[in-house]
Design brief:
With about 375 residues, the chain is an alpha+beta fold. Helix content is about 35%, strand content about 15%. The chain starts with a helix and ends with a helix. About 45% of the residues are buried.
Length: about 375
């Protein structure tokens, strides 16, 4: 260990102890546990943050930011966090609801600007709330990187974007719906999606991050890696941070929005994501700054689908045994991410990983579950 790395470690430990009641022994045990998880699951890079009683009590980063350059990962480095991004879209929608610009019961067709109707149930209105809770009957079978796929005037196969069940009476996780929600935010706010989120959520929270690659310091991007089990090799995924500059040059407000991926394009660090998590944990307020009303925050966390999904926030009872957490996960380009909190017990955990050998399953990823439980056991759990 070099003097520079040792000094950095000692500074981190002193900083942690100065703001929390955790002990050196807790940190030592937690980090030994995390190193075992990293070794078992071949995690390339791991950043974590732990919140307790409205304070960030622990943050650290392990492994590599980039394999090719052998660059160590640090707490300031940022990741594309994938589907946790959806909650930023809903937070924006709730702000517009509070401003009287729309209602969750509005016809999604009226908001998007073209017909959004399941052809098997043409009389059933698909509402904005259905889109936000994945109960709209929309699906991703035609793709979701542009709105042409579901626009009847643009795609002759648009009907494939709808499932066989009546809107509001089933559940199918749908990225396309959230890219359409992003377009709605632009239409009603008059601001480009990435700028709206920056001005109305990120800046008030003192949060570094965003959806537009060129608005961020590219030197902070953590390389994401896909793992191929057959060869046991990690392959970088540069498209995670594709700037899409040519598409942005020809941007059409309220329609080109998928360029920024409201469904999965937020890029930030574990520490800054923990600030955002605390806002939701405290019903819309962080350190004296209110982002959304208590009513809106509660609604975002209230079950809207049979599986416990609310409005871009899950009610998950399968992460920590015997406990229902609220939050979201993400998975894309080799990354696995998680943001889970318990509003009554006032704790939360953020996990960002840049690649591992853990296979994708229908359940929560093994990296997420093991890391969340380790951090909970070492820093939160009462003896």
């Amino acid at each position: 260990m070099t003097i520079e790395i040792l000094l950095k470690y000692l500074f981190t430990v002193l900083l942690i102890f100065s703001f929390s009641a955790i002990s050196y022994g807790q940190v030592e045990k937690a980090e030994a546990d995390l190193q075992n998880i990293i070794k078992e699951l071949e995690i390339v890079g791991l950043s974590v943050a732990v919140v307790k009683n409205n304070n960030i009590i622990y943050t650290n980063s392990f492994g590599l930011k980039d394999i090719e350059s052998n660059t160590p990962l640090s707490d300031k480095d940022i990741f594309r966090i994938a589907s946790i991004s959806k909650s930023f879209s809903v937070t924006s929608i709730m702000q517009l609801v509070e401003a009287g610009k729309l209602s969750l019961n509005d016809d999604f067709s009226d908001l998007v600007g073209f017909k959004v109707r399941n052809p098997k149930f043409p009389e059933t209105v698909i509402t904005l709330k259905m889109a936000l809770s994945h109960t709209s009957s929309l699906n991703d079978s035609e793709g979701y990187f542009n709105l042409d796929v579901i626009n009847p005037a643009k795609n002759p196969n648009w009907a494939n974007c709808y499932n066989d069940y009546e809107p509001g009476k089933g559940y199918d996780y749908c990225n396309l719906a959230f890219n359409m929600v992003g377009a709605t935010i632009e239409k009603l706010s008059g601001e480009r999606f990435d700028r709206y989120v920056k001005h109305h959520i990120l800046n008030p929270l003192g949060f570094y991050g965003g959806y537009c690659v060129d608005s961020l310091d590219a030197s902070l991007f953590t390389t994401l890696y896909e793992y191929k089990a057959s060869t046991k090799e990690f392959t970088p995924s540069p498209s995670a941070y594709a700037p899409r500059r040519e598409e942005i040059k020809n941007y059409v407000m309220g329609y080109s929005t998928p360029i920024f991926s409201p469904t999965g394009g937020m890029k930030t660090s574990a520490t800054d994501l923990a600030k955002y998590m605390m806002m939701h944990m405290n019903q819309g307020k962080y350190k004296g700054t209110r982002i959304i009303s208590k009513k809106s925050a509660k609604l975002m966390q209230t079950k809207a689908a049979e599986n416990g999904y609310a409005l871009a926030i899950m009610n998950a009872d399968d992460v920590i045994p015997g406990m229902t957490l609220r939050g979201h996960t993400g998975s894309a380009y080799g990354l696995n991410s998680a943001m889970f909190f318990h509003p009554k017990e006032k704790f939360g955990i953020v996990v960002l990983t840049s690649g591992s050998n853990a296979p994708e399953t229908a359940e929560h990823n093994k990296v997420v579950v093991q890391t969340v439980n380790s951090l909970y056991d070492n820093f939160i759990k009462k003896e």
